[in-house]
Amino acid sequence: MNTVLVTGCSSGFGLEIARYFLERDWRVIATMRTPREDLLPASDRLRVLALDVTDDASIAAAVAAAGPIDALVNNAGVGMVSPLEAVAMDQIRELFETNTLGTIAMTQAVLPQMRARGSGVVINVTSGVTFQPLHLMSIYTASKAAVNAFTESLALELEPFGVRARIVIPGRAPETPFGANARSRMGAELPQAYAPVAAQVMARVSQQGGEITRSIDVAEAAWRAATDPAAPMRIPAGADAVARANAGLR
Ligand SMILES: NC(=O)c1ccc[n+]([C@@H]2O[C@H](COP(=O)([O-])OP(=O)(O)OC[C@H]3O[C@@H](n4cnc5c(N)ncnc54)[C@H](OP(=O)(O)O)[C@@H]3O)[C@@H](O)[C@H]2O)c1
User: For residue 212, what are the CA distances in angstroms to 74, 170, 173?
Assistant: First the structure.
Protein backbone atom coordinates (compact mmCIF):
# COMPACT_ATOMS: atom_id res chain seq x y z
CA MET A 1 0.00 0.00 0.00
CA ASN A 2 1.34 3.46 -0.92
CA THR A 3 1.68 6.31 1.55
CA VAL A 4 1.29 10.02 0.87
CA LEU A 5 2.28 12.80 3.26
CA VAL A 6 0.47 16.07 2.59
CA THR A 7 1.38 19.41 4.22
CA GLY A 8 -1.23 22.03 5.14
CA CYS A 9 -4.27 19.77 5.49
CA SER A 10 -6.31 21.98 7.81
CA SER A 11 -8.28 23.48 4.89
CA GLY A 12 -8.50 24.01 1.14
CA PHE A 13 -6.44 21.99 -1.31
CA GLY A 14 -4.48 20.04 1.31
CA LEU A 15 -7.63 18.75 2.95
CA GLU A 16 -9.09 17.75 -0.43
CA ILE A 17 -5.85 16.06 -1.54
CA ALA A 18 -5.78 14.01 1.69
CA ARG A 19 -9.45 13.01 1.22
CA TYR A 20 -8.87 12.09 -2.45
CA PHE A 21 -5.92 9.77 -1.76
CA LEU A 22 -7.74 8.24 1.23
CA GLU A 23 -10.71 7.38 -1.00
CA ARG A 24 -8.31 5.62 -3.37
CA ASP A 25 -6.91 3.29 -0.74
CA TRP A 26 -3.62 5.03 -0.04
CA ARG A 27 -2.26 5.44 3.47
CA VAL A 28 -2.51 9.15 4.19
CA ILE A 29 -0.41 11.19 6.60
CA ALA A 30 -2.39 14.41 6.86
CA THR A 31 -0.23 17.07 8.50
CA MET A 32 -1.40 20.31 10.07
CA ARG A 33 0.09 22.98 12.31
CA THR A 34 -2.74 22.32 14.74
CA PRO A 35 -3.79 18.66 14.33
CA ARG A 36 -7.52 17.97 14.12
CA GLU A 37 -8.90 14.45 13.89
CA ASP A 38 -12.42 15.55 12.87
CA LEU A 39 -11.66 17.02 9.42
CA LEU A 40 -11.23 13.78 7.46
CA PRO A 41 -13.24 10.55 7.51
CA ALA A 42 -12.00 8.12 10.20
CA SER A 43 -9.87 5.35 8.70
CA ASP A 44 -7.15 2.97 9.82
CA ARG A 45 -5.18 4.26 6.80
CA LEU A 46 -5.26 7.86 8.08
CA ARG A 47 -2.80 9.49 10.48
CA VAL A 48 -2.99 13.12 11.46
CA LEU A 49 0.38 14.56 12.51
CA ALA A 50 1.53 17.98 13.70
CA LEU A 51 3.78 19.77 11.24
CA ASP A 52 4.94 23.34 10.86
CA VAL A 53 7.09 23.48 7.73
CA THR A 54 9.06 26.47 9.06
CA ASP A 55 10.27 24.53 12.12
CA ASP A 56 13.17 22.08 11.66
CA ALA A 57 12.34 20.11 14.82
CA SER A 58 8.70 19.79 13.75
CA ILE A 59 9.80 18.52 10.31
CA ALA A 60 12.18 15.96 11.81
CA ALA A 61 9.53 14.70 14.25
CA ALA A 62 6.81 14.40 11.59
CA VAL A 63 9.02 12.60 9.07
CA ALA A 64 10.29 10.19 11.75
CA ALA A 65 6.74 9.45 12.92
CA ALA A 66 5.42 9.02 9.36
CA GLY A 67 7.61 6.04 8.37
CA PRO A 68 8.14 5.27 4.66
CA ILE A 69 6.61 7.90 2.34
CA ASP A 70 5.97 7.20 -1.35
CA ALA A 71 4.62 10.64 -2.24
CA LEU A 72 5.24 13.97 -0.55
CA VAL A 73 2.82 16.78 -1.40
CA ASN A 74 4.23 20.17 -0.43
CA ASN A 75 0.97 22.09 -0.35
CA ALA A 76 1.28 24.34 2.73
CA GLY A 77 1.49 27.95 1.68
CA VAL A 78 0.50 31.49 2.46
CA GLY A 79 -0.33 34.40 0.16
CA MET A 80 0.38 38.10 0.12
CA VAL A 81 -1.24 40.86 -1.90
CA SER A 82 0.67 44.07 -1.34
CA PRO A 83 2.89 46.65 -2.97
CA LEU A 84 6.49 45.79 -2.14
CA GLU A 85 6.95 49.13 -0.40
CA ALA A 86 4.18 48.41 2.08
CA VAL A 87 5.52 45.20 3.62
CA ALA A 88 8.32 44.75 6.11
CA MET A 89 11.24 42.47 5.28
CA ASP A 90 10.24 40.31 8.26
CA GLN A 91 6.87 39.60 6.61
CA ILE A 92 8.62 38.79 3.33
CA ARG A 93 11.03 36.41 5.07
CA GLU A 94 8.12 34.75 6.85
CA LEU A 95 6.35 34.11 3.54
CA PHE A 96 9.49 32.65 1.94
CA GLU A 97 10.05 30.53 5.07
CA THR A 98 6.72 28.82 4.45
CA ASN A 99 6.28 28.76 0.68
CA THR A 100 9.84 28.28 -0.50
CA LEU A 101 12.14 27.14 2.29
CA GLY A 102 9.41 25.02 3.91
CA THR A 103 9.01 23.14 0.62
CA ILE A 104 12.76 22.73 0.24
CA ALA A 105 13.22 21.59 3.86
CA MET A 106 10.43 18.99 3.64
CA THR A 107 11.84 17.68 0.38
CA GLN A 108 15.33 17.39 1.87
CA ALA A 109 13.90 15.51 4.87
CA VAL A 110 12.17 12.78 2.82
CA LEU A 111 14.69 12.36 -0.01
CA PRO A 112 17.16 10.02 1.73
CA GLN A 113 14.53 7.32 2.24
CA MET A 114 13.18 7.72 -1.33
CA ARG A 115 16.68 7.52 -2.82
CA ALA A 116 17.50 4.46 -0.70
CA ARG A 117 14.34 2.68 -1.92
CA GLY A 118 14.80 3.82 -5.52
CA SER A 119 11.26 5.22 -5.76
CA GLY A 120 9.07 8.09 -4.70
CA VAL A 121 7.63 11.36 -5.93
CA VAL A 122 7.78 14.92 -4.63
CA ILE A 123 4.82 17.06 -5.68
CA ASN A 124 5.11 20.79 -5.17
CA VAL A 125 2.00 22.97 -5.29
CA THR A 126 2.88 26.40 -6.73
CA SER A 127 0.53 28.86 -8.43
CA GLY A 128 -0.87 30.08 -11.73
CA VAL A 129 0.52 33.53 -10.87
CA THR A 130 3.81 32.15 -12.17
CA PHE A 131 2.24 31.94 -15.67
CA GLN A 132 1.59 35.66 -15.87
CA PRO A 133 2.75 38.70 -13.85
CA LEU A 134 -0.03 40.26 -11.74
CA HIS A 135 -0.17 43.52 -9.78
CA LEU A 136 0.76 43.47 -6.07
CA MET A 137 1.91 39.86 -6.19
CA SER A 138 5.68 40.33 -6.51
CA ILE A 139 6.62 38.61 -3.25
CA TYR A 140 4.16 35.73 -3.50
CA THR A 141 5.02 35.14 -7.18
CA ALA A 142 8.74 35.15 -6.41
CA SER A 143 8.22 32.57 -3.64
CA LYS A 144 6.33 30.22 -5.99
CA ALA A 145 8.46 30.81 -9.13
CA ALA A 146 11.46 29.80 -7.01
CA VAL A 147 9.72 26.50 -6.23
CA ASN A 148 9.04 25.91 -9.94
CA ALA A 149 12.73 26.40 -10.73
CA PHE A 150 13.82 24.36 -7.71
CA THR A 151 11.58 21.44 -8.70
CA GLU A 152 12.65 21.36 -12.34
CA SER A 153 16.33 21.33 -11.45
CA LEU A 154 15.87 18.84 -8.60
CA ALA A 155 14.01 16.45 -10.91
CA LEU A 156 17.16 16.08 -13.01
CA GLU A 157 19.34 15.15 -10.03
CA LEU A 158 16.77 12.66 -8.69
CA GLU A 159 16.03 10.89 -11.99
CA PRO A 160 18.98 8.44 -11.78
CA PHE A 161 17.64 7.23 -8.42
CA GLY A 162 14.09 6.52 -9.66
CA VAL A 163 12.68 9.46 -7.68
CA ARG A 164 10.40 11.91 -9.49
CA ALA A 165 9.50 15.56 -8.84
CA ARG A 166 6.47 17.36 -10.31
CA ILE A 167 4.79 20.75 -10.03
CA VAL A 168 1.01 21.19 -9.61
CA ILE A 169 -0.04 24.70 -10.67
CA PRO A 170 -3.52 25.73 -9.47
CA GLY A 171 -5.36 28.78 -10.78
CA ARG A 172 -7.51 31.11 -8.64
CA ALA A 173 -9.60 29.21 -6.11
CA PRO A 174 -12.04 31.48 -4.29
CA GLU A 175 -13.55 28.52 -2.37
CA THR A 176 -10.54 28.23 -0.03
CA PRO A 177 -9.66 30.73 2.78
CA PHE A 178 -6.42 31.51 0.95
CA GLY A 179 -7.49 34.78 -0.73
CA ALA A 180 -8.82 36.33 2.48
CA ASN A 181 -5.62 35.34 4.28
CA ALA A 182 -3.50 36.80 1.48
CA ARG A 183 -5.44 40.08 1.54
CA SER A 184 -4.89 40.32 5.28
CA ARG A 185 -1.15 40.44 4.50
CA MET A 186 -1.60 43.71 2.61
CA GLY A 187 0.72 46.20 4.38
CA ALA A 188 -1.13 48.17 7.04
CA GLU A 189 0.36 51.45 5.82
CA LEU A 190 -0.55 51.43 2.12
CA PRO A 191 1.24 54.37 0.44
CA GLN A 192 -1.44 56.59 -1.12
CA ALA A 193 0.21 56.32 -4.54
CA TYR A 194 -0.80 52.63 -4.68
CA ALA A 195 -4.45 53.15 -3.66
CA PRO A 196 -5.88 53.13 -7.23
CA VAL A 197 -4.13 49.89 -8.26
CA ALA A 198 -4.99 48.28 -4.90
CA ALA A 199 -8.66 49.17 -5.42
CA GLN A 200 -8.56 47.64 -8.93
CA VAL A 201 -6.94 44.45 -7.66
CA MET A 202 -9.44 44.07 -4.82
CA ALA A 203 -12.35 44.63 -7.25
CA ARG A 204 -10.96 41.97 -9.61
CA VAL A 205 -10.29 39.45 -6.85
CA SER A 206 -13.80 39.76 -5.42
CA GLN A 207 -15.41 39.56 -8.90
CA GLN A 208 -17.70 36.61 -9.45
CA GLY A 209 -17.71 34.63 -12.68
CA GLY A 210 -14.96 33.54 -15.04
CA GLU A 211 -13.07 30.29 -14.93
CA ILE A 212 -11.77 29.23 -11.56
CA THR A 213 -9.97 26.34 -9.86
CA ARG A 214 -11.72 24.01 -7.42
CA SER A 215 -9.99 22.00 -4.70
CA ILE A 216 -10.95 18.79 -6.50
CA ASP A 217 -9.01 19.94 -9.59
CA VAL A 218 -5.89 20.25 -7.45
CA ALA A 219 -6.47 16.84 -5.86
CA GLU A 220 -6.84 15.26 -9.33
CA ALA A 221 -3.62 16.93 -10.50
CA ALA A 222 -1.73 15.73 -7.40
CA TRP A 223 -3.09 12.22 -7.99
CA ARG A 224 -1.89 12.31 -11.58
CA ALA A 225 1.54 13.50 -10.47
CA ALA A 226 1.73 10.68 -7.92
CA THR A 227 0.44 7.82 -10.04
CA ASP A 228 1.38 8.58 -13.65
CA PRO A 229 5.12 8.49 -14.32
CA ALA A 230 4.40 10.03 -17.74
CA ALA A 231 2.73 13.11 -16.20
CA PRO A 232 4.30 16.36 -17.43
CA MET A 233 6.64 18.34 -15.15
CA ARG A 234 4.13 21.20 -14.82
CA ILE A 235 0.56 20.10 -14.27
CA PRO A 236 -1.96 22.96 -14.38
CA ALA A 237 -4.97 22.41 -12.09
CA GLY A 238 -8.30 24.12 -12.73
CA ALA A 239 -9.95 25.46 -15.88
CA ASP A 240 -8.29 28.89 -15.59
CA ALA A 241 -4.80 27.42 -15.06
CA VAL A 242 -5.26 24.97 -17.94
CA ALA A 243 -6.39 27.83 -20.24
CA ARG A 244 -3.35 29.91 -19.29
CA ALA A 245 -0.98 26.99 -19.77
CA ASN A 246 -2.51 26.25 -23.19
CA ALA A 247 -2.21 29.90 -24.18
CA GLY A 248 1.52 29.44 -23.69
CA LEU A 249 1.74 32.02 -20.94
CA ARG A 250 4.86 31.62 -18.91
N1 LIG B 1 -6.51 29.36 -3.29
C2 LIG B 1 -5.85 29.83 -4.32
O3 LIG B 1 -6.37 30.72 -5.04
C4 LIG B 1 -4.50 29.26 -4.70
C5 LIG B 1 -4.11 29.38 -6.03
C6 LIG B 1 -2.88 28.87 -6.42
C7 LIG B 1 -2.07 28.24 -5.51
N8 LIG B 1 -2.45 28.15 -4.20
C9 LIG B 1 -1.54 27.45 -3.28
O10 LIG B 1 -2.17 26.26 -2.87
C11 LIG B 1 -1.73 25.89 -1.56
C12 LIG B 1 -2.94 25.65 -0.67
O13 LIG B 1 -3.72 26.82 -0.64
P14 LIG B 1 -5.27 26.81 -0.24
O15 LIG B 1 -5.99 27.61 -1.27
O16 LIG B 1 -5.72 25.45 0.04
O17 LIG B 1 -5.21 27.74 1.07
P18 LIG B 1 -5.58 27.42 2.59
O19 LIG B 1 -6.90 26.78 2.69
O20 LIG B 1 -5.32 28.71 3.31
O21 LIG B 1 -4.48 26.33 3.00
C22 LIG B 1 -3.16 26.64 3.31
C23 LIG B 1 -2.66 25.58 4.25
O24 LIG B 1 -1.28 25.85 4.53
C25 LIG B 1 -1.11 25.70 5.93
N26 LIG B 1 0.07 26.41 6.42
C27 LIG B 1 0.35 27.71 6.42
N28 LIG B 1 1.55 27.93 6.99
C29 LIG B 1 2.03 26.72 7.36
C30 LIG B 1 3.20 26.28 8.01
N31 LIG B 1 4.16 27.13 8.42
N32 LIG B 1 3.36 24.95 8.23
C33 LIG B 1 2.42 24.06 7.85
N34 LIG B 1 1.27 24.41 7.26
C35 LIG B 1 1.08 25.73 7.02
C36 LIG B 1 -2.38 26.26 6.53
O37 LIG B 1 -2.48 25.81 7.86
P38 LIG B 1 -3.06 26.67 9.08
O39 LIG B 1 -4.52 26.35 9.12
O40 LIG B 1 -2.29 26.17 10.24
O41 LIG B 1 -2.78 28.13 8.76
C42 LIG B 1 -3.40 25.61 5.60
O43 LIG B 1 -3.63 24.27 5.97
C44 LIG B 1 -0.82 27.04 -1.09
O45 LIG B 1 0.54 26.65 -1.30
C46 LIG B 1 -1.17 28.19 -2.02
O47 LIG B 1 -0.07 29.06 -2.19
C48 LIG B 1 -3.67 28.63 -3.78
Answer: 21, 9, 6
